[in-house]
TrEMBL record:
Keyword vocabulary terms for this entry: ATP-binding, Cell membrane, Membrane, Nucleotide-binding, Transport
CDD domains xrefs: ABC_NikE_OppD_transporters
Gene Ontology terms describing biological process: peptide transport; transmembrane transport
Lineage: Bacteria, Pseudomonadati, Pseudomonadota, Alphaproteobacteria, Rhodobacterales
Originating species: Roseivivax marinus
Name this protein carries in UniProt: Dipeptide ABC transporter ATP-binding protein
Length: 333
């Protein structure tokens, strides 16, 4: 397999994963032959335009794909187990215990009619410890996510909290079971810029403390540059570039990544809420084009790009790009 991160000891390895969605208007090939390594104890950013498959990949890794989704091929390996073959029962054991997720909208994971304390103790149902100890752990975790007066917050309901506080509760719940992998799917999109910075810092601190791996899905290049160690750039259901954040941001290898950065007015540092648009549109994923899927929008495309689908070529140590230009560069080096 093409190494996606260059790390020898990944927590989770995605091998040639393909996911289809069956719809009345045809089959959408949303993910095609995804190869990715999630390094142990590090933060991997997943970036790309809306519709490129970030959420589909994230949901595949926690077994929460929608009913019309089908894993069309490949494997997701985590310590010897292929998660694509996990039974509903195995998923129940994995979820919340080894793999947790925080969503864009905190209300996706919070029960509106349950108090914060109730939800935070319920999530510890596997632990054979007294209820008082579960409450103590909940308070400790609320303290960690910097919720003021945590003891009193156990009795409140989600609607009594602000958006930022709700997301902190979700982070606290997701980390309460000390998972090995935390998937954060655009967790700051619904928050204003100041809160976004606070939440990102918090995630960074907690990740260091707990030592879990994190997959951080984001539209926001600046946040990824600040928070993540590694990055995978997705386009039209494929991973088109992977590597250490410093390498990919300094010397993007794929014309799509270059275009993303070029039309980002913030150019890494300043806060932007959404990726600016690149001329053209994503291809129709019901009829995936031959050759390179970015060719119609690529200023550097030539004949080969229409004829041959590019594999992931090395662009440097632990840095890969799915572009024929890299093979040309290699050949002339
Ligand atoms: N349940 C579904 N049924 C049919 N098609 C779907 C479904 N979920 C996603 N898709 C399609 O799969 C493709 C990938 O979507 P996905 O939501 O994973 O992209 P994304 O990069 O996460 O986008 P965003 O940033 O807007 O969340 C898109 O073409 C989308 O329309």
């Amino acid at each position: 397999m093409d190494s996606a991160s260059g790390h020898s000891d990944p927590l989770l390895t995605v091998e040639r994963l393909s996911v289809d969605f069956d719809t009345p208007r045809g089959t959408i090939h949303a993910l095609r032959d995804i190869d990715l390594e999630v390094p142990k104890g590090r933060i991997l950013g997943l970036v790309g335009e809306s519709g490129c498959g970030k959420s589909t990949l994230a949901y595949s890794l926690i077994g929460l794909l929608s009913g019309n989704a089908r894993i069309a091929g490949g494997a997701i390996r985590m310590t010897g187990t292929d998660l694509t073959r996990a039974t509903a029962r195995q998923w129940r054991d994995l979820r919340g215990q080894r793999i947790s997720m925080i969503f864009q909208d905190p209300m996706t994971s919070l029960n509106p009619v349950g108090s914060v304390g109730r939800q935070m103790t319920d999530i510890q149902y596997r632990d054979r410890i007294p209820a008082s100890e579960k409450r103590r752990r909940a308070v400790e975790m609320l303290e960690k996510v910097q919720i003021p007066d945590p003891e009193s917050k156990l009795d409140v309901y989600p609607h009594q909290l602000s958006g930022g506080m709700r997301q902190r509760v979700c982070i606290a719940m997701a980390l309460l079971t000390r998972p090995e992998l935390l998937i954060a799917d655009e967790p700051t999109t619904a928050l204003d810029a100041t809160l976004e910075v606070q939440i990102v810092r918090l995630l960074q601190d907690l990740q260091r403390e707990i030592g879990c791996s994190v997959i951080f899905v984001s539209h926001h290049l600046g946040t990824v540059a600040e928070l993540c160690d590694e990055v995978a750039v997705m386009y039209a259901g494929e991973v088109v570039e992977t590597g250490a954040v410093r390498d990919v941001f300094r010397t993007p290898a794929h014309p799509y990544t270059q275009a993303l950065f070029e039309c980002d007015p913030a150019r890494i540092r300043e806060a932007t809420r959404h990726l600016p648009t690149i001329p053209g549109t994503l291809p129709d994923l019901r009829q995936v084009p031959e050759g390179c899927c970015f060719k119609a929008r690529c200023p550097r495309a030539w004949d080969l790009c229409a004829a041959k689908h590019p594999p992931l070529y090395a662009a440097g140590a632990g840095h890969h790009g799915r572009c024929h230009l890299l093979a040309e560069a290699e050949a002339s080096a």
